[in-house]
Structure formats: C-alpha cells, structure tokens
Amino acid sequence: MAATSLLSKCTSPFLTSPPSIPLTNSNNLSFLTIPSDQFLSPKKSSKIRPNAKKKNPWLDPFNDGEDPDIEYGSLFADGKQEEDPRPPDNPDNPYGFLKFPMGYAVEIASLGLKIRGDVRRCCCVISGGVYENLLFFPAIQLIKDRYPGVQIDIVASDRGKQCYELNKNVRWANVFDPDDDFPDPGEYLDFIGVIKSRYYDMILSTKLAGLGHASFLFMSTARDRASYVYPNVNAAGAGLLLSETFTAETMNLSEGGFHMYNQMVDWLGRPGRNVPRHPVPPLKVSISRKLKEFVEEKYRNAGAQRGKYIVIHGIKADSKASMQSRGDTDSLLPIEIWAQIAKAINGLKPVFVIPHEKIREDVEDVVGDKASIVFITTPGQLAALINDSAGVISTNTAAIQLANAREKPSIALFCCEEKAKVFVPNAEEKKCSIISSKTGKLIDIDVDAVKSAVQVFSMPLALAAV
After folding, report:
1. What's the rounded Cα separation, in Å, for the pair 395 and 421?
2. 255: closest CA among 421, 398, 434, 437?
3. pTM above the 0.85 mark?
4. How far apart are the two ends of the chain, measured CA to CA in Å?
5. Paired residues of 350 in beta bridges
6. Cα-based distances in Å from 102 to 74, 297, 406
7. pLDDT digits (tens, 9 = 90+) for 377-406
8. Digit-coded pLDDT (tens) for 15-73
9. Superkingdom of this entry's organism (predicted)?
10. Per-residue H/E/C for the chain
11. Other CB atoms closer than 10 Å to residue 249's CB: what's the count?
12. How far apart are alpha carbons 412 and 405 in whole angstroms?
C-alpha cells in the first residue's frame, strides 16, 4: 500500500490521462482526469491558430507570422505620414553629437517608420545625363506627394546634377557618377560614408544593378532599397541585397523613352493602408527669377526680344552639352540643314543654340554674321530661353521635353516614327508636331515638311507679341 501511493506521487506530474491500473487513492488524483484544455485560460485557448501561416524560416527563424492579438492604432497604421514636427537642426549647436536623425523619436523607437513605412529621407541615384535626369522629375514629384514632408537627395553625374536647379523638391544634389565602372576606391568609400551618415529610409537607383551596385546600395543601410537590375545573368546575387527589384526590358533603360521609369513609378505610387494609388504627375520645371534675368540678357545681346523668337536646338557637335538621350544617339543635324529650316520662319527671329563656342564661326559662315546665336550649356538656361520664346524647333534633345514642360508649341524632328512615339507620347496634347525621317536616318529628314510645319508659329504672333 505504501509502495503504491509512493509510485503514484512520483509519476503523477508526467501523466496526461487516467492510469490504466486501479488506484485506491483515486480521489486524491482526480486532477489527472481533467482535460488539458482547461489548464489554459479561455482567452488564449480561443485564439490559438494551429494552421497559422509561417513565413520563410530562412529569412527570420523567429518570425511565426502575424500576431492575431495585435491591434494597430490609426496614428501609425493607416493613411499618409505626417510632416516631421521637430524643428530643423541648429548648425551652431555645440552639442550636435547628441542629436538624433530627423524622424526618429526615442520614445516610440520609430514605430511609424516600421509599421506604416514612413519615409522621412529618400535618396535617388540617377544614371545618365541631362535627358535621363529630366525624365525622373515626375517620380520625384510622386515621392513628394506620397510621403508628405520627405527630404529628397539626388546622386547623379556632373552633367545630370545641373538639372536640379529646375526642381524645388530636391534638397541636395551630389556629384558621383554611378555609371563609372571603376571608381576611385577612396572616393567610393568616402561617399558610402556620406550616405550612411544621412540615415536614409529609402534609396532608389535607376542604374542596372549587379552584385557590385547592389552592394553599394546595401551599404547605405537604408531600410528600403529599390533598383533596376540587369535582364540577364549579370543580375545574379543583386536581389539578395535589395528589398525591391525591377527587371529592365533591355540593357539600355533609356530606350524606354518618356516612360523609361514606369516600373519604378508604378511601385512608388502603389496603394496601401487606406492610401489610394497615386497618379503619375506630368513633367514640370521651375525657373528662378535670377536665372530668367541672366538668360534674358543673353538673348537680348543676340538681337532677340521676348516672345518674338524661335529656339533652334540640336546642332551637330561633339559636346556633351547637346543634351542627347542615351536611347537615341541619332538626334543631331548639321548646321546646313538648320539654315534651310530657318529661312522658312517668317515674322519671328530664329535663335541658334550652340553647345560650344567653337561652333559659333561655323554657324556664322553658313547662316550669316547677323544670325542670333546664344551659347548655352546648362538645362536651366535652356529652360529659361524656351520659356521666353514663341516656340521650339528641335531634334530629340532635352529642349523638346523642356518645351512640353513649359507648354510651348514645338516641332520635334526624329530619325524614325517609332522613336517619336516612345519619346513624345500624346504629342497633340502637348502642342508638339512630330516629323520623322522615312529612311531611319535623321540626316534624310524631309526639309519641305519641316518648312510647312514651321508656319504654325506665325498664327499666334499677335498673342506672342503681347
């Protein structure tokens, strides 16, 4: 009897069902017959989901999926982010090393950034020259509308950086050529340190990324890292270091024309958390008063008056200031053809834009000494010149996009009809007349067709004079 009771006391903690042998002290062991569910509280037992979906354990072995009991408040879960209420940093503060990054609240450990995906600081790495950076302006405006109060910085080449005097949404524009395959190691590491010290929440890149460029974006320590990747085997390994990838259709992203960034823009404007899909804004540029006054003095010295001249852009030269697109290399005409087109302009003065001073003599020899010639190398000055003009005649350069952005009538010359549809979609709505070559070469363009289209500038002459 003593042995039996001793055995029951030793084995009772391990039993989950009534023992199969009869026990004389069964009244003392009555808890062994209680179902195991009753040991759990009613709240916990009713919310257990045995079939809950578990995320990939290789990515996070401690993540068991969403918590069914968690409740998000509307402050951090739904809607757009609020602008940062913190005042700007004081550069004269002697205790600057104690400051926290913008948007980081110590009390809540950046809860809004984690749950809702707020973006307080964004960096955009733009590949290409003036044309490619100019077409990224709608994406910048989309980021500004989607994330109120966001600070946007740009990393671009020395030529691409010049575009951002036309964009008021950009805080800083840094010169670092992302297309350089063999950068200086010292400059490379130094620039990574600059990016890390700015605490970006999101970094975007339009350069086709392989493992090398993806590592550069990964070392920025940004939370969201989105980039285009190669459409071939060169993209191997890049997806492991990026949070979002866009596979380019071709090796040259600029061949996509005006909508070359459509995949990235579609991802940026995606709906979520009671925020509807954001439409893509049109291309717009802002011109400062100081820039307008500087350019006005230039074209007045050339003998032109505001609203009474036509901008001619696309003279053949070997200068990078020609502002061509990488997706259309056949987009410049010799001065002899431009001289024939200029003779058809009646009532308005043609103003020839040259990208280098060495071309001035060539233009004067063909057109004459009284020709109005303006030397312009930056997109800001070109935009100011177009803004005061009556219209634009240009090949596929940045001038045609700036004319559309300022809602000026224009005539665009293309090497083929396919390029025209890609780079200037909805041309009629943009007051743009398209003339394309029938042979696929811009040099063979029909000059008589261009002369007929030039007559459109003579119609609003009275309005232009006002």
Report:
1. 14
2. 421
3. no
4. 118
5. 310
6. 22, 42, 35
7. 999 999 999 999 999 999 999 999 999 999
8. 444 444 444 444 444 444 444 444 333 433 333 333 344 454 545 667 666 666 766 55
9. Eukaryota
10. CHHHHHHHHHHHHHCCCCCCCCCCCCCCCHHHHCCHHHHCCHHHHHCCCCCCCCCCCCCCCCCCCCCCCCCCCHHHHCCCCCCCCCCCCCCCCCCHHHCCCCCCCCCCCCHHHHHCCCCCEEEEECCCCHHHHHCCHHHHHHHHHHCCCCEEEEEECHHHHHHHHHCCCEEEEEECCCCCCCCCHHHHHHHHHHHHCCCCCEEEEEEEECHHHHHHHHCCCCCEEEEEECCCHHHCCHHHHCCEEEECCCCCHHHHHHHCCHHHHHHHCCCECCECCCCCCCCCCCCCHHHHHHHHHHHHHCCCCCCCEEEEECECCCCHHHCEECCECCCCECHHHHHHHHCCCCCCEEEEEECCHHHHHHHHHHHCCCCEEEECCCHHHHHHHHHCCCEEEEECEHHHHHHHHCCCCEEEEECCHHHHHHHCCCCCCCCEEEEECCCCCHHHCCHHHHHHHHHHHHCCHHHHHC
11. 12
12. 14
Token output for 169:
């949404």
Report d(CA 262, CA 280) in Å as an integer.
Answer: 9
Is residue 150 classed exposed, middle or buried when 0-12, 13-18 and 19+ CB atoms within 10 A define those classes? buried
With 0-12 / 13-18 / 19 or more C-beta atoms within 10 angstroms meaning exposed / middle / buried, residue 6 is: exposed
Q: How would you list the strands of the sheet with 432-436, edge to edge? A: 372-375, 349-354, 309-313, 391-395, 410-414, 432-436
Give the total residue count for the chain.
466
